[in-house]
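Quick note —
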Amino acid sequence: MNNQDDIASAKRTIDKEIEGLELMKTEFDENLSKALDVLQNTKGYVIVTGMGKSGHIAHKIAATFASTGTPAFFVHPGEASHGDLGMLTQNDSVIAISNGGESRELSDILVYCKRFGIPLIAITKNPDSSLGKAGDILLKLPDSGEACPLGLAPTTSTTATIVMGDVLAVALMERKGFSKTDYKQRHPGGKLGAVLRKVSDLMHKGDEMPLVSTETSMQDALLVMTSKMLGCVGIVDDAGRLQGIITDGDLRRCLQPDVMTKKVSEVMTRNPKTIAPDVLAVEALNTMNNTGKGITQLFVIENDKPIGVIHIHDCLRAGVA
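Predicted structure written out below.
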């Protein structure tokens, strides 16, 4: 085999799996909405189960549901027969996955669902299989053949099953109005958690804010700026509204012998760039990077009054980049 043979094989595999997904698009019917109704109205958990490769995919589908607003977990069909059926309640619903629909390990779960009236969504390519007939709702997988040259190893079928899980999860997110905030709450760690952090999560507030009044001398303002160590000082009027800002860069640009005798209102930059507390921190970073003036901090404003300061270093330390 040479490089060209390998590339040709890769393209055949991709084409075969795309063929399966294109076929699946044509087979959706009212059962999709029925399944979504069941999942959306489930008061307990969505239980996802399957054996072998279907089991691995069921794990993934359950995890996707759980992270996108639909409480779910995986139950191994073999363990279910030895006590884990007790995890299922009449407030739950079950998604059972089997490409051919004849995984004998699923039989006890199917019987249990029927006995206790637990809604059962079957995902299989064979409507006439044991699973296909047992399901209250059937979501049909495409019967387009596997990409495996032997036609045996689960390839096209597993891809279609993963996509079916994504179809359900995304549609449920849209139905529930699942937001970035909801997503962040379920992903506090790692890069996703960092990217979804808000300005209010990172800003300096309260006594950490460098603020002075419009009548303050530059000498006193410099002492505040130095003590707060954020490279700036905000100037507020008697009502506490932000009027301007003085930064380290401003000081360097206007450094003259008499600058310390002036009032901050004579030196400050009026109408400075600001940001709201509920904006994503990544947007604050983008604002600082794209003003063309080398801004490294922004005052956070609510009702025209400063409630915090966010510095570019806060964003970088939090992994927002």
